[in-house]
């Protein structure tokens, strides 16, 4: 019997309109009633994710910033990892040959140089989380949890080559979505953060199940006792984790249907066609 359930938010727990469906909310409450530890593992900032959970009446553990921050179920920060100052300095000050916009995440919020298009803000309509305009080249080198570049995928693929050549093995690069490439502290991801949290709770990764849909979920899904891939997941994720079950789409609240079946028969294998 698994004792912790970890959920990616966008594309997994949330529907495409960035809301939690009623069936999903009901099954999360069932997990809490069964005394399972509920954890939300997201690329979002704490100031973005926590208000969403509060609106839903959920009190779970939070892994935010793709593993750069870990919080307990009362909002107490358990762990923080930032980009090394030299790496942040390089990313912020190097003149990258790209049209991608740069977004810097610090504990105080989301900082960027130019106003963000309204369609990008739709993902944050529940929390009201907003960017702050800043000259990112003047930001301190310390205290930057991650840097994101946003552009069409082909543009980001070219930028990824530049970043890797410039940074070498000093940082991790990850596509959290087709149009978002992130620079993260080396070895920092949802998997390492969940391992840290599980040990804090006296558990092991074998005690955990997890759900995800993007490349920033790869390490977490591959390391837990039971990983589950969304039907709407990035093709790269499915190909890298072929041993894991693939369920339905987030639009149909597939996580809820999977867990409803699992709660009835935790020892049985679920088929998404059922």
Automatic annotation (TrEMBL):
Q: Which keywords has UniProt assigned to this entry? A: Hydrolase, Magnesium, Metal-binding
Task: Keyword check for tRNA processing, yes or no.
Answer: no
- On whether Magnesium is a keyword of this UniProt record, the answer is yes
User: Reaction catalysed?
Assistant: 4-amino-2-methyl-5-(diphosphooxymethyl)pyrimidine + H2O = 4-amino-2-methyl-5-(phosphooxymethyl)pyrimidine + phosphate + H(+)
* EC class of the enzyme, as a word: hydrolase
**Can you tell me which residues bind Mg(2+)?**
8, 10, 213
Q: Where is the active site?
A: 8 (nucleophile)
Provide the cofactor list for this protein. Mg(2+)
Entry's InterPro entries? Cof (IPR000150), HAD-like_sf (IPR036412), HAD-SF_hydro_IIB (IPR006379), HAD_sf (IPR023214), HMP-PP_phosphatase (IPR023938)
> In the record, what terms sit under GO molecular function?
hydrolase activity, acting on acid anhydrides, in phosphorus-containing anhydrides; magnesium ion binding; phosphatase activity
Instruction: Give a short account of what the protein does.
Output: Catalyzes the hydrolysis of 4-amino-2-methyl-5-hydroxymethylpyrimidine pyrophosphate (HMP-PP) to 4-amino-2-methyl-5-hydroxymethylpyrimidine phosphate (HMP-P).
Task: State the family it belongs to.
Answer: Belongs to the HAD-like hydrolase superfamily. Cof family.
Which protein are we looking at?
Answer: HMP-PP phosphatase
The organism of origin for this protein: Serratia nevei
Q: Which gene encodes it?
A: cof
